[in-house]
Structure formats: structure tokens, C-alpha cells
Design a protein that fits this description.
Layout: E1 2-4, H1 5-15, E2 20-23, H2 30-36, E3 42-45, H3 49-63, E4 67-71, H4 75-78, H5 81-89, E5 94-100, H6 123-127, E6 133-136, H7 143-154, E7 162-167, H8 168-171, E8 174-176, H9 196-208, E9 212-216, H10 218-222, H11 226-236, E10 240-242, E11 257-260, H12 268-275, E12 279-283, E13 304-309, E14 323-326, H13 329-342, H14 353-366, H15 377-389, E15 395-398, H16 402-407, E16 415-418, H17 428-435, E17 443-448, H18 449-452, H19 458-464, E18 469-475, H20 480-489, H21 504-511, E19 514-518, H22 527-530, E20 537-543
Parallel strand pairs: 2-3, 2-4, 4-5, 5-7, 6-7, 9-10, 9-12, 10-11, 12-13, 13-14, 15-16, 15-17, 17-18, 18-20, 19-20
Antiparallel strand pairs: 1-8
């Protein structure tokens, strides 16, 4: 049966399992929107296209499925760039459908034309460096090939964003819908066994170690290998620290959890790595700038190293390993777990991690290196309240990072999504909106006031669609990280960091959402009785002194 290309695209998205699509319509994409009218896909009207891409990213991160966004040509597409770059950096399967002017006006200067002809913006070139696949579809004779290649990238083991731009007239052309039946829409994932010699080499390195340490990266979470990681840690008495992005790779409230490793952390894991570990298993972690303390060579000096990653380009990128292995983390950890049992490898030397952390903290305090002083006690109390108030778990999208990294212990029931990727301000709120309808757990967006100004109106998107959301807004009337750096490194020569905020209570009232303000730990009393954190939309304002700075420096 012949159907318009616009409807083929909608049915393609349906077959990919897309549940929601976020965007703003425009005249050049209305045929696809018309196809969405009778679709099972929920379309969500956002306030800005950048937020549409961030929402698609949030949806993809929490579901593991494909996130989708849709815009018109010209500014609609260009506004997607930062969000698509975020998906590219985080290797998220996000598809963007963008309109384009009709092909018959290419090169003539048509309204919002972005074909790259006649001096117009080249929309395809714009996305070339931040997508796994992008295509301007000018004809229908290769449509099936384009859709197949797009699906292949979205469903691969190492996915990334796809952008398809379709001229208005091509959307209205008719093609046989049988092209959908020929598409390869099943994930092309073949479990490859890990070579036995590599597992045996890993076992021998562990057997010969006195105090091994696991550095878990996001690869462990992406591979759904957390259960195997936890079994190995407990059976072998191996402490675990994580990269920021992998916070929660094991339950951080467990006795072998050292918290996360990195510049903005309190330093317990760093000290254990430097002072105690003789073997380091780096599993799915890139050992980037944050995790490595700006590639401090002292961290790994004198250590034996096992590195496992599904991406060969990450192996030995910044250090030499005794064993470097490209492998799926789930397959590797399952095989290693079995081998440790079969070869009767004894547990490693018992480590009292909590005692080590207490002693390390005392040393940190004595040296005046504590990352937070008493001015942040109410912030710490807030995160402890979160742990107690939601024992069945919560979902947290975090733009602020430094507070949750140090104060919140991610449990096995939580999902924690820090703002990594291109680390754009204003990410947490739209990402949380994209994720919220897919979970029964309460969803929190953690954000500073500077970032909130970039996405505040997306609260109305949540209101318009009755999407539960809790926004935790740290209010200090400044771009906190910038002010901290100008204090530490530029002799308090503050420029373009301070600003005035509106009355956020009145702003929340105008949105018709809940609001509370936290200035001291006492303000947390009865908070869960005052607000509906599961089904409501709330703005929780946490006040911080403008001149209170976390005591860390990225220039270590």
C-alpha cells in the first residue's frame, strides 16, 4: 500500500520502540506531525528545541531505548545542536527528525532553507561532527537504505545520535509501505565469549594481589553488569570506587563502597588508591580528567593494572596496563566470577572500608583539605534526608554534581545521571522531564540558579503534560563554579558571574506548582508531608551563601 513518506517515518519510529517524541512544530515538518496524530507515540510540545534534545537524552538514559525529538528547518534544527552534541558525547541512541524547505527552492533563498546551497546554512554539515549518522533525504529511491543505516546506528552496541532531515515535498511523496518490512530493526548484538586465557590472566593477577581495588566506570552500568560486579566485590573483599558517571555501579551504602573517584570528590577513594591498592581493575572507565585528577601519574604509580572496556579506543589511552582487554563488561565479569569460584581463589585481605574512610577524613580535616565547611551543613542534611525519605529509590538528574557526589550515597534502587557529555548548564530539568513518564520512582532535577535560568520555562512543559517533577534549585545569586574559580585563581576579580534572582516562590506560584525554601537543616522537618514528591511538580529552593565555596581545584 502506498503511504506518504511522513507516515513511513512515524511508523519507522514506532517500530524502533519510540514512546515519546519531543519538539516544536513548524510549517516544514507539519506532514510528519500530522502522521503523529493517530500514532501511539506521545508528542510533547516543549518551549525550546534544545530542551527537546535534552528530553530525548533523558528518556534514552533511563530506558536504555531510543529517545526522539522533532523540529522544523532552520532555527528549529540549529537549536538542537547542544542537545545532540550531548547525546554524541554520552553515546545515547537519540534520533532527531528535522524538516527542510522543498527541494525546488534549494539555492533560491527560501524561508529557513538550510540545504547548504546558494549560501544557505548547511544543516547536514552542521551535525556532521556530532552524529553517528546524518542524512538530507532529497529523494525516495534510497529511503529504505537511509532508514536501515539509521536503525543500525541507533541499535548498535556503541550507539549515538542520528539526524534525518526531510524536505517538505519529499515528506508528501508516496512510497510503498513494504519498505518497512525489509528494515533490520533488531539490535545487532552478538555476545562474544571472553577468551579463557584472558580470564585466567585476570584471576592470577587477583590471586597475587594483597589489596586490589575496582574502579567501576559507566560501562558497568551500560552493560547491566552491576550484579556481577557486586558479587565479585563481596566474595573477594575488593573495595569499589567509581567514576562520577558510574556512581551507583554498586550500592554506595554497602560496606565495600568507597564512593566516587575524582577532582570534585572528598578524596577518600583517591587516598585508598594511592596508599593501599596494589592492583587496580579499571572496568569500563575512561580515566578522564575528572576521574584521574587531571591525569595525576601518582595515582597509578607502582600498581598493576587490569583494564577492560568494550571500546578499544579507551584501552591504555592514558596509562599502561598489565592486561588490557576489549570485551563486553557483562560477559567479562560473569566469566571472571565463575573462574574465581571454580579456581577456588581465596578472598583478599579483609578491609574495613568505613574505618579507612574515617581515618582518611580525619587526615583531610587536620590538613585543612575538607571540601566543605559548616556553611554546607544544611545541604548535606538535605541529601541525607533524601536517602531516608525514599528507601524504594529515586531518579536523579544532576547538573550541580559536586554536592550529590559527596553527600548522596546512591543505592541499588536509585538511578543517578550526572551531567556529563558536553556538561551543558540547563540540562537537568528537561532531561528529567524526558525520563519521568517512564518510571514510578520520584524524579529529581538538581540544578544551580544559573543553569535554571536557561531552562526555567520547561517547568510549564511539565505542567502542561502533568509530568511529575521535583526541581532542587541551589540559590546563591551567582554562577557558583565561575565565582569559585575567580576567587581561587583570579584574586577575586569577579566578572560576569553574579546576578539577581526573581522571587522563586512567586515564580512557582505563577506556574501553579509547589514551592519550599531550605535555609537550615531544621527546614527539612515535615518536608515529605508538605509536598507530593511522587505525583506533584515542585520547586525546592536551597539557599547558599554566594561566598561559600567548595574547597577543591581542577588545577591540582
Amino acid at each position: 500500500m502506498n503511504i506518504p513518506v511522513s507516515l513511513v517515518l512515524v511508523r519507522f519510529l514506532e517500530r524502533l520502540g519510540v514512546q515519546s517524541i519531543f519538539g516544536i512544530p513548524g510549517s516544514h515538518i507539519l506532514p510528519v506531525y500530522d502522521g503523529l496524530y493517530d500514532s501511539s507515540i506521545r508528542s510533547v510540545l516543549v518551549k525550546h528545541e534544545q530542551a527537546a534534545a535534552f528530553m530525548a537524552c533523558g528518556h534514552a538514559r533511563i530506558t536504555g531505548g531510543i529517545g526522539a525529538c522533532i523540529t522544523t528547518a532552520g532555527p528549529g534544527a540549529t537549536n538542537l545542536v547542544t542537545g545532540i552534541a550531548n547525546a554524541y558525547s554520552d553515546r545515547l541512541p537519540v534520533i532527531a527528525i528535522t524538516g527542510e524547505a522543498p527541494t525546488h527552492i534549494f539555492g533560491k533563498g527560501g524561508l529557513q532553507e538550510s540545504s547548504g546551497e546558494g549560501g544557505s546554512v548547511d544543516q547536514v554539515a552542521l551535525f556532521a561532527g556530532i552524529t553517528r549518522y546524518h542524512r538530507l533525504i532529497e529523494r525516495t529511491d534510497y529511503l529504505a537504505s537511509v532508514l536501515n543505516q539509521a536503525a543500525g546506528q541507533l541499535l548498535s552496541d556503541t550507539p549515538g545520535p542520528v539526524v534525518l532531515s526531510i524536505p517538505y515535498n519529499v515528506q508528501k511523496e508516496y512510497v510503498d509501505d513494504s519498505i518497512l518490512d525489509a528494515l533490520a530493526l533488531a539490535p545487532a548484538r552478538v555476545g562474544t565469549p571472553v577468551p579463557a586465557q584472558h580470564i585466567d590472566a585476570s584471576v592470577e593477577l587477583i590471586r597475587s594481589a594483597r589489596r586490589p581495588l575496582i574502579v567501576a566506570g559507566y560501562g558497568c552500568i551500560r552493560a547491566e553488569a552491576r550484579a556481577a560486579l557486586d558479587r565479585i566485590s563481596r566474595r573477594m573483599n575488593i573495595p569499589v570506587t567509581s567514576s562520577l558517571k558510574a556512581k551507583g555501579a554498586i550500592d554506595e551504602r554497602s560496606p565495600l563502597a568507597l564512593g566516587s573517584l575524582g577532582v570534585t570528590s572528598g578524596g577518600h577513594a583517591m587516598r585508598y588508591l594511592e596508599q593501599e591498592a596494589d592492583l587496580v581493575l579499571i572496568l569500563g572507565a575512561g580515566f578522564n580528567e575528572r576521574t584521574s585528577y587531571v591525569w595525576d601519574k601518582r595515582l597509578l604509580d607502582g600498581k598493576r593494572i587490569i583494564q577492560v572496556d568494550n571500546d578499544a579506543s579507551q584501552l591504555q589511552k592514558v596509562f599502561r596496563a598489565d592486561l588490557a582487554l576489549q570485551a563486553d563488561l557483562a560477559a567479562y565479569l560473569a566469566a571472571l566470577d565463575d573462574a574465581l569460584v571454580e579456581q577456588d581463589v581465596a578472598p583478599r585481605e579483609t578491609v574495613d572500608v568505613m574505618d579507612f574512610v574515617d581515618r582518611a577524613q580525619q587526615d583531610i580535616d587536620d590538613a585543612g583539605e575538607a571540601i566543605f565547611n559548616h556553611q554546607f551543613d544544611h545541604v548535606k542534611a538535605f541529601y541525607r534526608w533524601l536517602e531516608q525519605a525514599f528507601p524504594d529509590g529515586l531518579v536523579m538528574f544532576d547538573d550541580n554534581i559536586v554536592f550529590a557526589q559527596n553527600f548522596y550515597r546512591v543505592s541499588a534502587k536509585d538511578r543517578f545521571f550526572p551531567n556529563t557529555g558536553v556538561s551543558s548548564l540547563g540540562h537537568a530539568v528537561p532531561a528529567a522531564i524526558g525520563a519521568s513518564p517512564t518510571t514510578t520512582r520520584p524524579v529529581f532535577a538538581i540544578i544551580g540558579d544559573g543553569g535554571f535560568h536557561m531552562c526555567a520555562m520547561e517547568l510549564m512543559t511539565a505542567v502542561n503534560y502533568d509530568i511529575p517533577l521535583n526541581v532542587v534549585l541551589f540559590n546563591n545569586d551567582t554562577m557558583g563554579l565561575i565565582r569559585k574559580n575567580q576567587h581561587q585563581h583570579y584574586d577575586d576579580r569577579f566578572i560576569d558571574c553574579d546576578f539577581s534572582n526573581p522571587d522563586f516562590g512567586k515564580l512557582a506560584q505563577s506556574f501553579g506548582i509547589g514551592h519550599t525554601r531550605i535555609e537550615t537543616a531544621d527546614d527539612l522537618r515535615g518536608l515529605d508531608d508538605r509536598m507530593d514528591f511522587h505525583g506533584g511538580i515542585n520547586l525546592i529552593e536551597v539557599m547558599i551563601d554566594r561566598d561559600a565555596y567548595p574547597n577543591y581545584s581542577s588545577r591540582r
